[in-house]
Amino acid sequence: MHVEFWGAARTVTGSMHLVKVGDKQLVLDCGLFQGNRKEAYHRNRDLPFAGSRVDAVILSHAHVDHCGNLPSLVKSGFDGAIFSTPATRELASIMLLDSAGIQESDTRYINKKRKQDGNEPLTPLYVTRDAVATLKLFRSVGFDKWFDVMPGIKCRFHVAGHMLGAAFIELQLTENGHTVNLVFSGDLGRPHRPILKDPETVSGADYLIMESTYGNRLHPEEDDADPVLIRLINRAMESKGKIIVPAFSVGRTQEIVYRLNNLVEAGRVPPIKVFVDSPMAVDATDVFRANVDCFDDEMVERILSEEDQDPLNFKNLYYVRSSQYSRKLNSFNEPCMIISASGMCESGRVVHHLKNNIEDPKNTILFTGYQAPNTTGRHILDGNKKVRFFRQEYTVRAQIEKLEGSSGHADQSELLKWAEGICHTGNVQKIALVHCEMDSATALKQKLEEANLPEVIIPNREQIMPLN
Q: Where do the DSSP E strands lie in 176-258?
């Protein structure tokens, strides 16, 4: 038995790992690769294995870089079960339908330009009917329950704390009477964050596959989110500008709304209008409200209190569903904050908001999460003064800001502590670092080795790790 690394190997997006046990094949995550658009299209379309040869999928969580290419797997012949936690199943239904809709609408928009230039039309990676076919294959299982994936493979989900429903995956793999325990971190969250429970740990692992997105950095000891939000909202009110927040519809959007609710209730910010402009974020917020079992004690207490039964709502907060309402925000001339997807500025409504606002110095672009290399968000955050939206160039004149302490990913010290907890209670033979850029993985590898933990590898794409 072995693991083949096909996605998020020496890169952050496109999580996808193939586990082979005897004649059975299991895929851990099947995410969209994000980066250079031409490269991303071909890598996402041309899967490294036929879906018809895969027996099952286990999904760590519902972010598109982990679940977003499942419809392509189904198009290539996969018809087995996709296992996830209940909240992940609910969120994935929103994410995949939204992803299909965005690809359809963006392709129509781009093809108008291509037709004018005499070029052949593009086809979307997948469409809504492919997403619907995928969702029919989901099977939900709660946390901390062993279940049979197929003969020789058992699984158990543990709280990862990264987003609603996010799990790290514990596998018990048996071949010819020999059993190996493999743990896959998915994306690990941080302790003591708003809304969600803290990440758990587990004992008895033999092999560990873990993310290392922030393996080379430490988050600020003090959370900077509230002071930054207060400063930027005051600036917007004074300059009569807009704050554009490219945010992942699931997780980051709800955390920002939660923080804004606290600031509004405490009277720490002036009454600025806030628009959550994403149908997916609106639906995801409803899923949050329905999954109280995933919340930490503070969030549960807020929900149960008579004074504040909805911590994800406040005066002057508007959830926007219709595209017509979204377009009206282009001509909205009052100070406001617009929170819109996608988080890396590659697609969705936020692209239109950036296009209409990035050249005005009164405005601010506020990043709240990781920006993968070669994405539009990364280009802006790196200080490029020219960016392209829908094949047209724009000059960056707006202020560019980032919430340094708001990440949903564990930092170097938190990753090290999590790995130590697993290694000291098991018989770990090897640690594979994935979901990383090389500088992050190299820095974390050094820290793990200094802590006298087992052999650490940073696998290339296509590399095989035997499970002895």
A: 178-184, 207-211, 242-246
**CA–CA distance from 78 to each of 26, 27, 29, 72, 309 (Å)?**
11, 11, 14, 9, 43
Distance in angstroms (rounded) separating the CA atoms of residues 67 and 14:
9
**pTM for this model (two decimals):** 0.86
157 shares its domain with 210: yes
Query: Rounded to an integer, what is the distance from CA 358 to the centroid of its chain?
Result: 24
pLDDT band for position 224 (50/70/90)?
confident
Q: Are residues 130 and 48 in the same domain?
A: yes
What are φ and ψ of residue 57, in 5° steps? -125, 140
The 3-state DSSP composition of the chain as helix, strand, coil percent (nearest 5) reads 35, 25, 40
Domain identity same for 256 and 349: yes
Greatest CA separation for the chain: 70
pLDDT digits (tens, 9 = 90+) for 229-252: 999 999 999 999 999 999 888 888
Where helices occur in 279-423 by DSSP H, the ranges are: 279-289, 297-304, 323-328, 349-357, 376-381, 412-423
Q: Are 378 and 246 found together in one domain? A: yes
Task: Tell me the C-alpha distance between 394 and 31, whole Å.
Answer: 30
Question: Which residue's structure tokens are 């080795």?
Answer: 449
Q: Please, what sign has the CA dihedral across residues 99, 64, 110, 364? A: positive
Q: 39 is in which domain, residue-wise?
A: 2-217+408-466
